[in-house]
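Please check this chain.
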Amino acid sequence: MQIHIKMKPLFSIIILLSTHLFSCVEEESLADATGVFEATEIIVSAEANGKILSFDINEGDLLKKDNIVGLIDSTQLYLTKLQLKASKNAVESGKPDVRTQIEATEREIAKQEREKERVKKLLAGDVATQKQLDDIEAAIEILESRLKSQKSSLNTNVTAIDAQSKTIDVQIAQVEDQLEKCKVKSPIDGTVLVKYAEKGEMAAMGKALYKVADVDNMILKAYVTGDQLAKLKIGQEVDVLAEFGKTETKNYKGKITWISSKSEFTPKTIQTQDERANLVYAVKIAVKNDGFLKIGMYGGFKMSLGNGPIAEE
């Protein structure tokens, strides 16, 4: 009887250990390869120098692409723009009115043409002389030469003034571009991960302001052995397994978007199914996030769909 009492707990321990070992083996067999979840992260930096007048975001905020989230002081740029516009108006005010300035010469030519026709008629009736007609034709040639010279000179002046005006337009466009860069915008739809600056601080071109990530579309970066590599291709759908703690897991649909062309040593934080495999290949799998996946979370994947329940998107 005493032997029976001592053997019972020992037998229970053996059963528990066997069950635990079996479950560990079963959990390990769920994934063909393991890795870590990542997201497209962008560090947004200042594109202008000046005091930060507004910067109304907080870590965890959801941003839409091109939304204005902050403003850097642009007073000096705006004054420069006004100055350039005034310079353009001054330049264009000196542009000559070609039509007005050649109109007098054209009227004189027209008058001489009429006189020429009158003299021709008088010459036909022997009332006028050939010299009178020659004098009128010479006067017309002089006027036409003067008109041609006026047009050339005036057009040259207009071209030069237009060139100056266009140069100022380019300078205005440059200032407007700098003014636009004083607006801090979100480059993508995403979530604010880190905020590096605050309202009232001085921003310098290139200074990091905040980090945003597209957490709606996660990427599982996993590592496979050379033997597994032959079974994978770009665009292939796979079962992705996310690990929540030590025991809880959840399945997602995923699609392979990138396969490394070079092998590398297995990262220390990653365990492969084949412990003898020192060289592995990185694989990226796109996964639609339902809100539970987090950056840095461990996960794995199986090479074909249909191995478990798929989380709803």
Summary: The first strand starts at residue 33 and ends at 45. Residues 75-181 form one domain.
